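Q: Structure tokens for this one, please.
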Amino acid sequence: MTDSLAAVVVAAPSSGSGKTTIATGIMGALSAAGHRVAPFKVGPDYIDPGYHAVAAGRPGRNLDAVMVGSDALVPMVRWGARDCDLAVVEGVMGLFDGRIPPDDTDPVGPAAEGSTAAVATTIGAPVILVIDARGQSQSVGAVVHGFATHDPRVRLGGVVLNKVGSARHEAVLRQSCERVGVPVLGAIPRSGALDVPSRHLGLVTAAEHGTAAVAAVDAMAALVARHVDLEAVVRLARTASVPESTPWSPDAAVGEIPPGSRPVIAVAGGPAFTFGYTEHEEVLVAAGADVVTIDPRHDRLPDDVAGLVVPGGFPELHAEELAANDGLSADVRALADRGAPIHGECAGLLYLAAALDGHAMAGVLDLDAEFGSGLTLGYRDAVALTDSVLFDAGTRVTGHEFHRTRVVRAGDHAPAWGWRRDGVTVREGAVSASGRVHASYLHTHPVATATALTRFVAACRSVRFG
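A: Here is the predicted structure, written as tokens:
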């Protein structure tokens, strides 16, 4: 790969500064101006990429160095931006925030593992810092100076001032930033019109928000187009030095596959199951599968389905509808009885359970779950404890948990994963006696687990009908 790629990272000092609004607005405004924008999100977030996809007109992708390894980031950027002239990457949390080492005595550098700063450095992209300007004026210069000098490997190329109160306020903020040598690329006035509905795990997904999501993204793009110097953003992006690399590709990740029929794999979608990575379906297809998407709220399984994937999402908000579709529940149980491979991830674990908050689910697994008050969140260095259709026992992965539900009754299933947390061994998930059903709260990334997905598709080929 020898061509240059323009790229810019949109970051902030902390969560809640408005970087999703600004990043999504930049993607939408640049797309409207004729640029082919590749949208990315740092970390394991599933919700922001949905809004990015609406803005850019192409799938949003995640850059998670913790789950896939930092060496995979540039190939992933090259793959996601292969038909584009510019990549826009939205950061996560504060610019230097990332995975905290499990032992607080471990050294922590200026940028934590998986942080926006670490990703920006790896892919060679300059950073635009979004500053929530409420409650400060001249002090903004000190904030910007600190972020510009904290880690010399990170190149802070400009600032977007967000939630500016008045013309006078903007003038003082601009002067303060320029005094420390960082240009202001835009100033966004205070407005409540762009607030996107949120709930217990963050923003309401774009799939659920529907036409309102499109309207919100259009408003973000229009606001950015009015108040941000887009030409300056493009000039800054063109100073990126994305390393040369062969793009990651699903075909290369899968390798050569045996000739033969293509098994049909159903993937749950719709508003209840939106937490999935773009690369997941790409790998399944490259491994030889034909993928069909179903909405478990009202669809049935096609007759020729040889495998099922149920990704993450919000089944707890749609439990009544899911329970009412007892035809699909029967289909899924019959599929499991036939020995077809089934993979449930987080929300998938809940749907395959016997009950969720008292509502009957598919009943493939003998366990019950309910919505709880505590958030379970964080990366896990996990080891497979049981042979399954996806993993051999002993396989190690790094995954991520993100849920407020919990299993309140667990049947006699072998655990899927084990890991250490706070000095305690956690055994989590469920694998059926045949090993053909694998379900867990743990999210994994398909770039890191392409071999497991290839194995899953191969197992689907062995399913017999009739």
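A few notes: The mean pLDDT is 93. The CA atoms of residues 68 and 291 lie 24 Å apart.
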